[in-house]
Specification:
Layout: E1 2-3, E2 6-7, H1 22-26, H2 39-42, H3 53-62, H4 76-86, E3 99-103, H5 106-127, H6 130-140, H7 142-165, E4 177-184, H8 191-207, E5 211-214, H9 218-224, H10 226-231, E6 238-247
Antiparallel strand pairs: 1-2, 3-4, 4-6, 5-6
Helix pairs in contact: 4-8, 5-7, 5-9, 6-7
Length: about 270
């Protein structure tokens, strides 16, 4: 807690401390110590100039969802930087509770694609069956089912022929690298934490000269197909919640795209 220039710990709240580290991060004299945390091990000094609105504006306005990549391997050093950036994403309650699988071998991604195609071919056929549709709706919930029915299934019907004959890849996009975000199925709901972390990942990739996209088609396929679970080393209690494909952009954008929020209320 801080009052003017004085920093102190509120002893009445020690019992509800979950070791987020905020009190130690703000203490100018390193006088507050939380059990299990160390100034030398768990903290670092912030740079003097860390408020740069122009830089952030440029970063988010020039970033695009990249789905076409050069046939070029992404260096491990760059993937390491992205992993470090992901770790800065704030969790609802510390510590971070998700795991990452960093796929830097494009051959593994290509090997996984046919299994993903199998799953989505099965899904399209199942959605054509009134009885199976009832079970799918019950499993995924009303909102996701509506999205599947109105957006995903029409897209898959259009793209599956090209996916099957190998003329296009609208799932992994021939990406040279991929990051999977894993959560414990028996643990807490940390999907929001993961989606924030994935956003940090795609922004970091852009800052490093890479392109990236969050791909919603990949996690369900890996979770459902036993072959894919083994391929990516998932434990029985783990599911993929989000995925990022990334690589060097094949094309360079010359301009941004303006978007309008549907409604904004000021209160």
């Amino acid at each position: 807690m801080r009052t003017d220039d004085t920093v102190y710990a509120n002893v009445n709240k020690i019992g509800v401390c979950f070791k987020c580290g905020q009190c130690m991060a703000i203490c100018p004299t390193q006088s507050i110590v939380v059990d299990g945390l160390s100034y030398s091990q768990d903290f670092f000094d912030l740079p003097e100039m860390h408020n740069q609105p122009e830089y952030f504006s440029n970063l988010i306005s020039t970033r695009r969802a990249i789905r076409n990549f050069k046939e070029k391997t992404v260096e491990k050093e760059l993937l390491d930087e992205i992993v470090k950036a992901i770790a800065f994403a704030p969790p609802g309650f510390p510590p971070l509770k998700y795991d990452l699988v960093v796929v830097q071998n494009s051959a593994i991604i290509k090997q996984a694609l046919p299994y993903m195609i199998q799953l989505y071919d099965f899904l399209v056929n199942a959605m054509n069956n009134p009885i199976k549709r009832i079970f799918i709706k019950k499993e995924v919930g009303e909102l996701r089912f509506r999205t599947m029915k109105e957006h995903l299934i029409p897209l898959l019907k259009m793209k599956l022929p090209g996916l099957k004959d190998g003329t296009e890849d609208t799932i992994t996009r021939n990406a040279p690298a991929m990051i999977l975000f894993l959560a414990d199925k028996t643990g807490e709901d940390i999907s929001e934490d993961i989606h924030i972390a994935a956003t940090y990942g795609i922004l970091s990739a852009h800052s490093l000269g890479l392109g990236a996209s969050i791909m919603d088609l990949i996690p369900p396929a890996i979770n459902k197909k036993i072959e894919l679970r083994k391929m990516f080393g998932l434990a029985e209690n783990q599911d993929v919640i989000a995925s990022i494909i990334l690589g060097y952009p094949k094309y360079t954008f010359q301009r941004g795209i303006k978007r309008q929020i549907r409604n904004v209320w000021w209160i």
